[in-house]
Specification:
The complex is a heterodimer of chains A (282) and B (208). Chain A has 8 helices and 9 strands. Chain A is an alpha+beta fold. In chain A, helix 1 crosses helix 2, helix 1 packs parallel to helix 3 and helix 5 crosses helix 7. Chain B folds into 2 domains: 96 residues, Orthogonal Bundle (Rna Polymerase Sigma Factor, Chain: A); 71 residues, Orthogonal Bundle (Arc Repressor Mutant, subunit A). Helix content of chain B is 60%, strand content 0%. The chains are: A alpha+beta (282), B mainly alpha (208).
Chain lengths: 282, 208
């Protein structure tokens, strides 16, 4: 063990220390001295400020604008992943169906909207009725429950319409394109197509023939950034018929360079660890 | 919120609220500076860009690693960048030889891209020209010892070995050089108002 460093000794080393030019053992001895000597700490602060200025002596260069874009992409919020309403159609006909749906979008959307409005009228009527009953001092649990259920159904239906509507916009607006995802296992029946619209800033991923996983595993979507880094797009469970539809919202929906589906432990992973079941590159 | 006139420290505080605009503002201010330093240390565009990305993402993810009590944000940012770039240089050094003591500083005038870019040239212009003058004013052997340590990440012993000089000589050069630089920077005299372009001067660190 070396003798404790005194102030004179420490001060001789402060410049080299602030430059990071001391050997590790010397560095540690200086640190030890500084931790117990406020006077030398002050002198060190001065040395460190001069050292910090050296950074500014480097010839000034413009960083590439692409770097700024890359950073922007890294700090953007992750794409919000939402379930599309449970589909009753099989994946095989999904794309064709979507095309049909987009043609008849207004009618179909209008039909659903009529239903929502009907529900709303119902619940308004319930509310009036309930108010009447309450004024009479009667508690009608059954009625209250029916009212809550109706309101809940109405909300569900409303968000379902919105999501369908967004999916339709993706296809209807176009301006993006369609990518097919391919299975990575030979003869795998798993299929997938990704439609996106630059204008809607949105993409829809249709998946089919996914096998059901045990409870301790989950499917996870990954979107590939420009530099090839996979970013989690969220975890999901397919419907009973093996299909899934995912809505990818936000700038990444159109800007991503590829995507992949892996099987991960329940709860998902930070980075892909499991088998890739499906992938597509742009 | 006005990001243009916002002090650095406030922008950093915004980062913990996931404020991407504050992040962009910080990058807009210092991205080129961090890049220039990394490029000077690494001499490779791709590697320098990687360092810039690492450093700014670190600031984004862990803004609380910067402690306002310990001085200005810019001082901290540049020291994080310098250390990161030196680490990278060392790890590459195992694979490839770096030229030692490259010193593209030819005078205290504009260097790099700033000659044809007024906005770039205006960035911390006073501080940059002061440190350049101070460096250029040093005897070449003192300046080179300091540059080898700061930009090359070499220890005094490694510098002595690289130059074939006694360790004591290198130690003296570094000490004298740094003293002289401090003197030259102090001779700039008290700053007058409007000269300080560094935003967010916390006052605790004094001059950078």
């Amino acid at each position: 063990m070396k003798v404790k460093m005194n102030c004179e000794e420490a001060q001789e080393l402060l410049d080299a220390y602030s430059l990071g030019a001391l050997e590790k053992s010397e560095s540690r001895r200086v640190e030890k001295h500084l931790s117990g000597c406020s006077n030398c700490r002050l002198l060190y602060q001065q040395a460190a400020e001069t050292t910090a200025l050296l950074a500014l002596a480097a010839p000034l260069r413009r960083a590439s604008p692409a770097l700024r874009l890359r950073l922007r992409q890294r700090v953007l919020p992750r794409p919000a992943l939402r379930w599309l309403p449970a589909p009753r159609l099989s994946w095989a006909s999904a794309a064709a169906m979507l095309a049909v749906v987009s043609l008849g979008a207004l009618t179909w959307g209008g039909l659903l909207q009529t239903q929502v409005n009907g529900l709303k009228t119902d619940s308004d009527r319930f509310a009036v009725l309930y108010g009447e009953l309450e004024r009479r001092g009667e508690t009608v649990d059954v009625l209250q429950k029916a009212l809550t259920d109706a309101a809940f159904r109405q909300e569900n239906l409303q968000s379902l319409i919105q999501e369908q509507d967004q999916a339709m916009r993706v296809v209807a607006l176009g301006g993006g394109g369609r990518e097919d995802l391919v299975g990575t296992v030979a003869a795998s029946p798993v299929r997938g197509s990704y439609f996106w619209s630059a204008e809607a800033n949105l993409g829809v991923l249709f998946l089919g023939n996914l096998s059901q996983l045990s409870d301790d595993r989950t499917y996870q979507l990954w979107v590939l950034r420009e530099d090839g880094t996979p970013v989690s797009g969220g975890i999901f469970t397919p419907q009973a018929d093996g299909s899934a539809r995912l809505l990818v919202q936000g700038a990444l929906g159109g800007a991503l360079t590829g995507m992949a589906i892996t099987v991960e432990p329940a709860g998902g992973s930070e980075t892909p660890t499991g088998e890739i079941v499906l992938q597509g590159l742009r | 919120m006005n990001y243009t006139d916002c002090p650095d420290e406030e922008l950093v505080a915004q980062l913990s609220r996931q404020d991407t605009d504050a992040f962009e503002a910080l990058y807009g201010r210092y991205g080129n500076l961090v890049y220039s330093l990394s490029l000077r240390i690494l001499g490779d565009v791709q590697a320098a860009e990687d360092v810039v990305q690492d450093v700014f993402l670190r600031v984004w993810r862990k803004p609380d690693h910067y402690d306002t009590a310990r001085g200005r944000f810019l001082t901290w940012l540049l020291s994080v960048a310098r250390n990161r770039a030196i680490d990278e240089r060392r790890s590459r050094g195992r694979r490839q030889r770096f030229e030692v003591g490259s010193a593209p500083l030819d005078g205290d005038g504009p260097q790099g891209d700033e000659a044809d870019d007024p906005a770039l040239a205006a960035l911390l212009a006073d501080e940059r020209s002061a440190i350049r003058r101070a460096l250029v004013g040093l005897p070449p052997e003192q300046r080179s010892a300091i540059e080898l340590a700061y930009y090359g990440g070499l220890t005094q012993q490694e510098i002595a070995r690289a130059l074939g000089e006694p360790l004591g000589t290198v130690k003296t050069r570094i000490r004298l050089g740094m003293q002289k630089m401090r003197g030259a920077l102090a001779d700039r005299g008290p700053r007058h108002e409007g000269e300080d372009e560094l935003r967010g001067s916390s006052g605790t660190a004094g001059r950078l």
